[in-house]
Automatic annotation (TrEMBL):
<dbReference type="InterPro" id="IPR020846">
    <property type="entry name" value="MFS_dom"/>
</dbReference>
<dbReference type="InterPro" id="IPR011701">
    <property type="entry name" value="MFS"/>
</dbReference>
<feature type="transmembrane region" description="Helical">
    <location>
        <begin position="12"/>
        <end position="29"/>
    </location>
</feature>
<feature type="domain" description="Major facilitator superfamily (MFS) profile">
    <location>
        <begin position="14"/>
        <end position="415"/>
    </location>
</feature>
<protein>
    <submittedName>
        <fullName>MFS transporter</fullName>
    </submittedName>
</protein>
<keyword id="KW-0812">Transmembrane</keyword>
<feature type="transmembrane region" description="Helical">
    <location>
        <begin position="324"/>
        <end position="348"/>
    </location>
</feature>
<dbReference type="InterPro" id="IPR000849">
    <property type="entry name" value="Sugar_P_transporter"/>
</dbReference>
<feature type="transmembrane region" description="Helical">
    <location>
        <begin position="299"/>
        <end position="318"/>
    </location>
</feature>
<dbReference type="GO" id="GO:0005886">
    <property type="term" value="C:plasma membrane"/>
</dbReference>
<feature type="transmembrane region" description="Helical">
    <location>
        <begin position="170"/>
        <end position="189"/>
    </location>
</feature>
<feature type="transmembrane region" description="Helical">
    <location>
        <begin position="274"/>
        <end position="292"/>
    </location>
</feature>
<feature type="transmembrane region" description="Helical">
    <location>
        <begin position="233"/>
        <end position="254"/>
    </location>
</feature>
<feature type="transmembrane region" description="Helical">
    <location>
        <begin position="139"/>
        <end position="158"/>
    </location>
</feature>
<dbReference type="GO" id="GO:0022857">
    <property type="term" value="F:transmembrane transporter activity"/>
</dbReference>
<dbReference type="Pfam" id="PF07690">
    <property type="entry name" value="MFS_1"/>
</dbReference>
<keyword id="KW-0813">Transport</keyword>
Length: 427
C-alpha cells in the first residue's frame, strides 16, 4: 500500500477534533486581551503595569507544567489528559468573569496556564501517533490553525459580547464550550491507531509499518536528559523563545494598539483585529502544504519570520501619523509570524526518536511560553510607559530577527545517523 493511500479518512476524522480542541484552548487564553481593552482595568483598579503582568501570568503557569504534561501524554494517555484539561480550563475561563479583586484574577490566570500547559505538546504527540513524516507539517498546521482562526472569530464575537453585555459576561459565556466539548472528546478520541474501530486491520497495519519505518532512520537517544542536551534542541528552545515574544506581544495587545490609534469602539477594533488572523490562516495552509511537498522545514520558517520582523520595523518607521499603512504592515507581520508553525513543529519528531520527541517538543514549547510571558508583559509595559506602540514594534521586530538567525544555524540533518536497531531504550 502506498503512503499517500493509507487511511485518508484519518484527516476527516481526526483533524476536526484536533482543530476544535486547540481552538477552545486559544479562545480561553486570548480573550483577556479584549477585556483589557474593554474596561477590566478600570473596574478592578488595575494599573497599566499590573495589567501587563496579569496578562502574562498565564504563561508562567504554562511554562512550569509543559514537560510533566507531555511525559504523561507520551507514557499514559493523551485522551485522559486532555479530557480533564478541557473541563478545568473551561471552568477557570468562566470564573474569570466573576472575579472581584486583583489577587483572585492573578490566581485564575496562573491556574489557567497550568491546566492548558499540556495541551500543545499532548496534541503534537497525538498527531505524531497518527500521521507520517510526509503529512506532519499539514497535520500540525490544522492543529495550530485553531489559534488564528479562533482569534479571527473571537475578535468579532468578543467585541459584540462586550458591547452587548460586558467583559464579565464575555468570560462566563466563552468558558462553557470547553466543558461541553470535553464530553464529545471522551467518546470520539483514541490514543493510537490500533484502538480505532473506524480503521480496517489493513489500514492499521500499513500505518503502523510506515511510522515504524520512519524511526529506523533516526539516531537513538536513550533518555530525556540526552535529548535536552542536544545542540539542536537548545537552539530551537532559544529560537521559539524569541519568536513567541513577537507573537504574543502582538496577540495580547493588538486590540489596545488599534483602539489607541484611532479611538475606535470595541466592535470596530474587533473587526480590524480579525484581519491579520484571516491572512495568517491562508498563509499557514499554503506554507504547510509547500513544506510537506518539498520536505524542507527550515526554508519555510526563517524567511517568513524575517518578513514579520521587517513589517514590525516598517510599522515603527511609518509612525502613528499614518494609521492605515501601519495597520497594513501589522497584517503582514501577523500572517508572517503564524505561517511557519506547521513546518517548525515537524522538525522535532524528524530529528529525535519517538521515545524522547514528545518531551523535547514540550521543552521547546515551554521556552515559547517563557517568551510569550516576556513578550506580553514587556510589550504592555512599553505601551504604557511610552504612550505609543512604536517602541513595541522595535522590540518585537528585533526578537524575530534573533529567531531568524537561530533558525539558520539549526542543523536537523546532524541527528540522522544509522538505523536505530535496538539502541533506543525507554526514558
Amino acid at each position: 500500500m502506498k503512503k499517500h493511500t493509507i487511511a485518508p479518512k484519518r484527516w476527516w476524522y481526526i483533524m476536526p477534533i484536533v482543530f476544535i480542541t486547540y481552538s477552545l484552548a486559544y479562545l480561553d487564553r486570548a480573550n483577556f486581551s479584549f477585556a483589557s481593552a474593554a474596561g477590566i482595568n478600570d473596574d478592578l483598579g488595575i494599573t497599566k503595569g499590573m495589567s501587563s503582568l496579569l496578562g502574562a501570568l498565564f504563561f508562567l503557569g504554562y511554562f512550569f507544567f509543559q514537560i510533566p504534561g507531555a511525559i504523561y501524554a507520551e507514557r499514559r494517555s493523551v485522551k485522559k489528559l486532555i479530557f480533564w484539561c478541557l473541563i478545568l480550563w473551561g471552568g477557570c475561563a468562566s470564573l474569570t468573569g466573576i472575579v472581584s479583586n486583583i489577587p483572585m484574577l492573578a490566581a485564575i490566570r496562573f491556574i489557567l496556564g497550568v491546566v492548558e500547559a499540556a495541551v500543545m505538546p499532548a496534541m503534537l504527540i497525538y498527531i505524531s501517533n497518527w500521521f507520517t513524516k510526509s503529512e506532519r507539517s499539514r497535520a500540525n498546521t490544522f492543529l495550530i490553525l485553531g489559534n488564528p482562526v479562533t482569534v479571527l472569530w473571537m475578535s468579532v464575537v468578543s467585541g459584540y459580547l462586550i458591547e452587548s453585555f460586558g467583559w464579565r459576561e464575555m468570560f462566563i459565556i466563552e468558558g462553557f464550550p470547553a466543558v461541553i466539548w470535553a464530553i464529545a472528546w471522551w467518546f470520539l478520541v483514541q490514543d493510537k491507531p490500533a484502538q480505532a474501530k473506524w480503521l480496517s486491520e489493513d489500514e492499521k497495519a500499513a500505518l503502523q509499518a510506515e511510522l515504524k519505518k520512519e524511526q529506523e532512520s533516526i539516531k537513538a537517544v536513550p533518555n530525556y536528559r540526552e535529548a535536552f542536551k542536544s545542540r539542536n534542541v537548545i537552539l530551537l528552545c532559544m529560537q521559539y523563545f524569541a519568536w513567541s515574544i513577537g507573537v504574543y506581544g502582538f496577540v495580547l495587545w493588538l486590540p489596545s494598539i488599534l483602539r489607541n490609534g484611532t479611538q475606535m469602539g470595541m466592535v470596530e477594533a474587533g473587526w480590524l483585529s480579525a484581519v491579520p488572523y484571516l491572512a495568517a490562516t491562508i498563509a499557514m495552509i499554503v506554507v504547510s502544504w509547500a513544506s510537506d511537498k518539498l520536505q524542507n522545514r527550515k526554508l519555510f520558517v526563517w524567511p517568513l519570520l524575517l518578513i514579520g520582523a521587517l513589517a514590525f520595523l516598517g510599522s515603527y518607521l511609518v509612525g502613528p501619523g499614518n494609521f492605515w499603512l501601519s495597520y497594513a504592515l501589522l497584517v503582514v507581520a501577523g500572517a508572517a509570524m503564524y505561517a511557519p508553525y506547521g513546518p517548525f513543529f515537524a522538525i522535532i519528531p524528524e530529528m529525535l526518536p519517538r521515545n524522547v520527541s514528545g518531551g523535547a517538543m514540550a521543552l521547546i514549547n515551554s521556552m515559547g511560553a517563557l517568551g510569550s510571558f516576556t513578550g506580553s508583559w514587556f510589550v504592555g509595559y512599553l505601551n504604557g510607559a511610552t504612550g505609543s506602540p512604536s517602541a513595541s514594534y522595535i522590540f518585537m521586530g528585533a526578537a524575530l530577527l534573533v529567531a531568524v538567525w537561530l533558525t539558520l544555524i539549526v542543523k536537523p540533518a546532524d541527528n540522522k545517523q544509522q538505523p536505530v536497531g535496538q539502541g533506543a531504550k525507554p526514558a
